[in-house]
Every structure is written in C-alpha cells, then in structure tokens.
C-alpha cells in the first residue's frame, strides 16, 4: 500500500513535456513518467519522515524510473547507521541502469566519513560492470575535495577497467572536473597515465566545455586534444 500511494503521487506529478525531454537524455529508457527532480526529492523526504524501511523493503519492483531514483535518495538520506547505509547502497547499485539515477543518487549522500566511503567504493572502481564502475567514478568525484585528494583520485579514475560507454563517460567527466580545478597537475598526469585515447579525448573535451578553464590552460588543453587523432568510441552496452 505504501508503494502504491507513492506511485499514484508520481503519476499525478507527471509532466509529459519533461517526459519527452528525459527520454531524449536517457536513450533506451522507456519507463519514465516525467517528474522533475525537486518533486522526487520532496517525495523522498516524505518517505524518510515516515516508515522508510517499510517502503524500501516492500518487495514490489520499481515500475518507474522515478521510483528507482527515489529509492536511491531515501537510502542516501534516511537516518541510519553507516553499516546499514553501506549494505543498502550495495543492494541498490545493481538496480542502476542509466547515468541519471547513478549521478542523482551519488549527489545525495552525506559523505562526512570520507575515509569509510573511499574504502566502500573500491570494488566499484575495479568493477568491469558498466554502471557499477560509473557509480565508483562518480562517487570518487563526489569525495574529491582538493589537492590532498588529487593524486589518489586521478590514479583511481585512470585505473577503472570497465569499457562500457557510461563507465568511460563517467571516468571522463570525473577526470575533467579534476582538470578544471587543477589543470596543470591533471594534464601532466594524463600525458603519462596510459589512459585509453577515447577517454582521454573526452576528458579534454569536457574540460574545454567548462567556463572555469581559462587562459593558457585552455589553449594547452585544446592543443593536447588536437594531438589525439583516434576517433574510436566504446560501444554502448545494453541490458
């Protein structure tokens, strides 16, 4: 009954225009109602204020993309011990089958205990599974705070073995954010990292897309990207 009520609330909040927009952003994902993120966060908070364990433990499958997003946000924000949060997060990660749920949920966690979270994401950073690896990469970015974290973050991201499109894009995005904040160190690292050419090029492209990259570093980044001649892209994985 709890899950039924939340599903009804989602259907009432449907925006068909936004639904069409989201379907373009998340190719192949059809079970999208089209509910905006602020509404999803509000519904998640209402669940957190009630019997959130009963909601999470209801065996009914997630019928909608939005239900999976809410599930992840509830796991990230409900009051629980860290060991339970880690266990529930580990159970949740296999449900991730698109970049939007991955990135939206990763941004919802309280990462105060950064050392424990860094240890927790290590298996995902070493996973060959496309969305497990993207989860690890995006969480590494969420944990990244500054220069003290830079080298370990760069090395962890460059070492992600998964080859799925969404995994490589997650790695490139995370590396580019390191590059925008610390362009010299990141560009120097990329030159000697052995990172595959496609991900390297995407990293430089995303650095160039950021308005925060300015001056000589923008010129150097463009020059570095121009040197990478390969146009091969990783194949999208489905299923």
TrEMBL record:
SUPFAM superfamilies linked to this entry: ARM repeat (SSF48371)
InterPro entries listed in its UniProt record: ARM-type_fold, DNA_alkylation
Tree of life domain: Bacteria
Pfam family for this entry, one: DNA_alkylation
Gene3D superfamilies: 1.25.10.90
PANTHER family with a match to the protein in the record: ARMADILLO-TYPE FOLD, DNA ALKYLATION REPAIR PROTEIN
Name of this chain's protein: DNA alkylation repair enzyme
Organism: Butyricicoccus pullicaecorum 1.2
């Amino acid at each position: 009954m709890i899950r039924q009520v939340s599903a009804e609330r989602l259907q009432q909040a449907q925006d068909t225009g936004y639904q069409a927009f989201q379907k373009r952003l998340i190719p192949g994902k059809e079970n999208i109602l089209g509910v905006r993120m602020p509404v999803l966060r509000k519904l998640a908070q209402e669940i957190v204020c009630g019997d959130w364990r009963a909601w999470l433990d209801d065996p009914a499958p997630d019928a909608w993309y939005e239900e999976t997003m809410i599930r992840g946000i509830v796991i990230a924000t409900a009051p629980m011990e860290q060991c339970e949060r880690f266990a529930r997060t580990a159970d949740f990660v296999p449900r991730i089958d698109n970049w939007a749920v991955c990135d939206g949920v990763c941004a919802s966690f309280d990462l105060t205990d950064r050392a424990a979270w860094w240890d927790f994401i290590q298996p995902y950073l070493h996973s060959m599974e496309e969305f497990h690896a993207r989860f690890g990469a995006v969480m590494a970015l969420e944990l990244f705070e500054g220069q003290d974290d830079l080298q370990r973050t760069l090395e962890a991201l460059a070492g992600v073995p998964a080859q799925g499109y969404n995994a490589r894009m997650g790695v490139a995005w995370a590396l580019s954010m390191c590059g925008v904040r610390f362009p010299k160190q990141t560009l120097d690292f990329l030159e000697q990292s052995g990172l595959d050419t496609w991900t390297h090029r995407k990293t430089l492209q995303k650095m160039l897309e950021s308005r925060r990259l300015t001056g000589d570093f923008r010129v150097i980044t463009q020059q570095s990207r121009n040197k990478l001649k390969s146009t091969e892209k990783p194949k999208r994985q489905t299923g």
